[in-house]
Amino acid sequence: MKIYIVGGAVRDQLLGLPVKDHDYVVVGTTPDEMLAAGFRPVGKDFPVFLHPRTQEEYALARTERKSGRGYKGFSVYAAPDVTLEDDLARRDLTINAIAEDEDGELIDPYGGQADLERRTLRHVGPAFVEDPVRILRLARFAARFGFAVAPETMALCRDMVALGEVDHLVPERVWQEVAKGLMEDQPSSLFLVLRECGALARLMPELDVLFGVPQPAKWHPEIDTGDHVMRVLDYAAAQGWPLDTRFAALCHDLGKGSTPPEEWPRHLGHEGAGVSLVESLCERIKAPNDCRELAIMVCREHGLVHRAQELRASTVLELLTRCDALRKPARFARMLDACVADARGRPTFEAVAYPQADHLLACRDAAAQVDAGAVATAASDKAKIPDAVRQARLAAVKKVLQEAGAPYDQQDN
Fold first, then answer.
1. Residue 23 assigned as binding residue
2. Considering the entire predicted model, what is its pTM?
3. CATH code for residues 1-111
4. How does residue 121 score in pLDDT terms, banded at 50, 70 and 90?
5. Quick one: 330 exposed, middle or buried, by C-beta within 10 A (0-12, 13-18, 19+)?
């Protein structure tokens, strides 16, 4: 029995990154021998065991053979005669196919160390095409490390897309990889890699069609809507914002993809037009409710938020009500963060002031300070309580506008 550390732990150590988890492969043994040594079996599809003391995973060396469509269509062979090189050969990328033995010696039969130095993502062998999830993982690693994809690997990905392999991915797995990619340092790279190989058009066509759609140069020096969305997403990532904010940044301009070309570069009403597109995308990839709700809100409201300081008090209160801002202030703040990213995700706009966010937060705080219970108690006609509460909140918002020096008519007077 020989034990090796494999995969991400070796890769990250060579890159000088923190090693979070260790994966081990065991060569020259059987499940019975692992059980006799005190290991506990946990693998369903192939032999994986938990160490009796550390609870880390130890997998028997194995090979895999394609037996059907999609990422589940595999038959697995695990036996003492499977070598370490055999096991490493089934892995996706050369940088993930490096092993380290118990003496600290590296085993690198497929050139992973050289590709780390070249900052290149390259497939190990032709078996790469057998698992469409590898396209998503490839794109995610591009987002994590900023590495380029080897031309021959990109060609294989295009072939896989053309053969319909990505069409067999289950939505939950697509979301799992997309969510991980969104949380990387440069998430735009994930979507750009998917677009280059054609997978984005299959998995997220609402996003793919944005590339090549022009916007007014006055407000968008980058012109291209797809480029803008990628910049917005990377800005959100640079701030360390959470998953739902990043996903909302990704989806905020989907409506521009439905603008008739004869109306370009203007996109009047794209906010409302995008809501159904966000809904259909979220349904297809099974995005969780928090991401779905914030993405819809940002898509629907971002144009109004950008004009926040021009809005009448009644319009501000309606915005706060639609967003449920009084009951869910943290979510409302994240919605404003996504709007900040939208405003700054443009060349030369990266540091532009965005007072709209503080303005709306001040309005929200003022409305929230209204004691609805006291207003209800003071009301002589109980049927008019909702309107009385609304009027009290409206007065609070008006006061904020007055203190901000808003024009008289903007205060709904």
1. yes
2. 0.92
3. 3.30.460.10
4. very high
5. exposed
